[in-house]
Amino acid sequence: VIDDSNGHQTDGQGSTHATVVRPGPKATTAPVEGITILHQFPFSSALQRMSVITQELGGDPQAFIKGAPEIVAMLCRAETVPSNFESKLLLYTAQGFRVIGLACKSLPFGKAPAALTREEVESDLTFLGLLIMENRLKRETKPVLEELSAARIRSVMVTGDNIQTAITVAKNAGMISPTHRVILVEANEVPGSFSASITWKSLEENKIEDYTSLEDDSQTEPGIRLALGSGQYHFAMSGKSYQIVVQHFRHLLPKLLLNGTVFARMSPSQKSSLVEEFQKLDYYVGMCGDGANDCGALKVAHAGISLSEQEASVASPFTSRTPSIACVPELIREGRAALVTSFCMFKYMALYSTIQYLGVLLLYWQLNSFGNYQFLFQDLAITTVIGVTMSFTGAYPKLVPYRPPSQLISPPLLLSVVLNILFSLSMQIFGFVVVQEQPWYDKTDIHSACLSVNNYGSNSSSSLGLHGARDGAHEQTDNGFKSYENTTVWLLSTINCLIVALVFSKGKPFRQPIYTNYVFILVLIGQLGICLFLMFADIDDLYSKMDLVCTPTTWRISMVIMLAVTLAVSFLVEEAVIENRPLWLFLKKTFRYHSKSHYKRLQHVLEQDSAWPPLNETFFSDSVAVTVEGNMGGHSNPTFDSSEDSL
Predict the structure, then answer these.
(1) Which pLDDT tens digit goes with each residue over 88-140?
(2) Quick one: average pLDDT of 150-165?
(3) Is residue 326 within 8 Å of residue 140, measured between CB atoms?
């Protein structure tokens, strides 16, 4: 336990603000009384290291450096670096450990720490050793990656760790199958020229040699031979190689990204550039990150998810409450369900307005229209309530290996709308024409149907007198909208709106079944009950307000049959044609439709190229290189994108 005291002033080397760290009250013995932190050089992603100048109370100042082991070793005196440094580093990183290099240096006492430059402090160091840390996978990481892989959603690792550590973690997480090859892509600038070289090496071949000298483990050979014989491969490269490829081998970059799985030692600007390069291949890119170094990539990705509530949450549109990638499938499920719901709403609103327009158009044929309360009932009691409750259906819990249609102008969606318009038009025209052929129909007498039925059914004078009174009441309140055609077309069109709402509220594979949306089901049942009540109630005052007229019971049953047939046909077509994915795939194959996505076309080309990837070969670039800015063309964070020239 230590006691951290802030605000201590030291005057021995000039006035400077310093922090004194002392042993805590529970410490039994301590080698020093306290340590003063005089100056710090913060971590730089470009330099891959940080350093601090400290001084023991009453002692000489010293500098301590930590960072990427290979970088720290380059800054140390050669005699202090062990001869087996590289082999030991490979041994630990191959096991998935996070390795940090440590070094120190004694500083002259007479010079103020603030006056020392970073280059002076971080040179001629004494190598201290390696700090080995185990960062185990979270319990939910591997199942989430397996779920994404089953849904044919590609996962890519972009990290600042050592490339061998990243590859091992990717294998442990299931991103790289044991039967797949890992090809290390190394790009280097040729000294003394403006060209560069790029080499493809099978990582398993290197591991055979290294492990033979380190552990003499012969049990890995069968698995490695199986990996080399497999047709699946993954590219792995460092941030340095990635930047050289962008500058000198731009034509190879899309091919490398198509199978690139591990990108290690990546700076923040390189992460942003990588996301943009994937987007140029027509990928929809989601990015997960929890640190300030990920802010740029989170901002430029299609969907950025921050796994912490610190700096990254400011740049990303989504923030997870739990620091794990379990939120990724959840976000994809909710996003797909929201997209499908939007299309369902679009289809319903298009059908609702078209159904109402067709009904009015038919009535205009006889210089008639819907009444005010009829319009109001369809707009408020039907459409508004359905529009609010239709979106309550939740996302389906399982991800399927394909996406929903992403465009409104797509053949399945347009065909669904057009076919349902034709079904509605056919039903309304059929009802409009057939009602005029009924024996009780009279164009001028809107009460002939009920009078004729009652005359044939009963000859009592009280019945005639009752209907005579009803006739007088209707004649007094008739506003010109009442007709047999109006009543027939309005009832058919109103219930037809409920039918299309039910048919378009599809569930699997992107949303839960419709019966899980209890509110929507209750709304549909209530609306259907009200419509059937209006159809069969035959209440004078209600009919007068709604501009409806009395029709025989047989005709009302006929309208119900028409609606039932329309429901059956619409539902059958929607399930057997519109939602029949094998049928649409067959049509695409028949008409030789090919995807317009750049990465799919490139994937098809590479499948035909037997010379790709060129294993154990080295290519050289031309003398002309593409100039790349410091931020790699992506979103940059000036606080964390420091360069060596400015430090």
Answers:
(1) 888 888 887 888 999 998 887 777 777 788 888 888 889 989 998 887 888 88
(2) 89
(3) yes
Q: Could you tell me the pTM of the whole model?
A: 0.78
> For residue 258, what are the contacts with CB-CB under 8 A and spacing of at least 6?
281, 599, 602, 603, 606
| Pairwise CA distance, residues 172 & 81, whole Å | 31
CB 1 within 8 A of CB 22: no
Range scoring the smallest mean pLDDT among 220-229, 353-362, 587-596: 220-229
* CB neighbour list of residue 157: distance below 8 Å, 6 or more residues apart: 166, 169, 170, 175, 261, 262, 263, 264
User: What token pair was written down for 1?
Assistant: 């336990």
| CB contact set of 334 (below 8 Å; sequence gap of 6+) | 395
More confident residue, 581 or 464: 581
* DSSP, residue by residue, 90-131: HHHHTTT-EEEEEEEEE--SSS-GGGS-HHHHTSSBEEEEEE
Q: How far apart are CA 139 and CA 141, in angstroms?
A: 6
496, with CB counted inside 10 A (0-12, 13-18, 19+), is buried
Neighbours of 146 (CB within 10 A): 14
- List every span in the chain annotated with CATH 3.40.1110.10: 30-134
On the question of pLDDT at 208 being above 50, the answer is no
Residue 191 neighbours by CB under 8 Å, 6+ apart: none
Amino acid found at 621:
S
Q: How far is CA 187 from CA 56, 86, 197, 242, 245, in A?
A: 44, 19, 6, 8, 7
What distances in angstroms separate CA 534 from CA 547, 550, 571, one per listed residue? Answer: 11, 10, 25
Residue with tokens 């057009």: 418
Rounded Cα distance, 35 and 55, in Å:
6
With cut-offs at 50, 70 and 90, classify the pLDDT of residue 296: confident
Three-state DSSP class for 23? strand
What's the half-sphere exposure (Cβ side, CA atoms, 13 Å) at 347? 32
Q: Give the model's pLDDT for residue 388.
A: 92
Q: What is the pLDDT of residue 478?
A: 57
What local confidence, expressed as pLDDT, does residue 17 receive?
61
Instruction: Give the integer Cα–Cα distance in Å for 69 and 19.
Output: 27
Fold classified for 30-134:
Calcium-transporting ATPase, cytoplasmic domain N (3.40.1110)
pLDDT at 76 over 70: yes
Residue 494 has pLDDT above 90, yes or no: yes
Model confidence band, residue 490 (pLDDT cutoffs 50, 70, 90): very high
Q: For the chain, what is the largest distance between any 2 Cα atoms, rounded to a whole number of angstroms?
A: 126
Residue 71 burial class via C-beta count within 10 angstroms: exposed 0-12, middle 13-18, buried 19 and up: middle
CA-CA distance, 289 to 307, in Å (whole number)?
A: 6
Q: Is the dihedral of CA 25, 31, 32, 36 positive or negative?
A: negative
pLDDT digits (tens, 9 = 90+) for 561-575: 999 999 999 999 999
Phi, psi (deg, nearest 5) at residue 324 = -150, 165
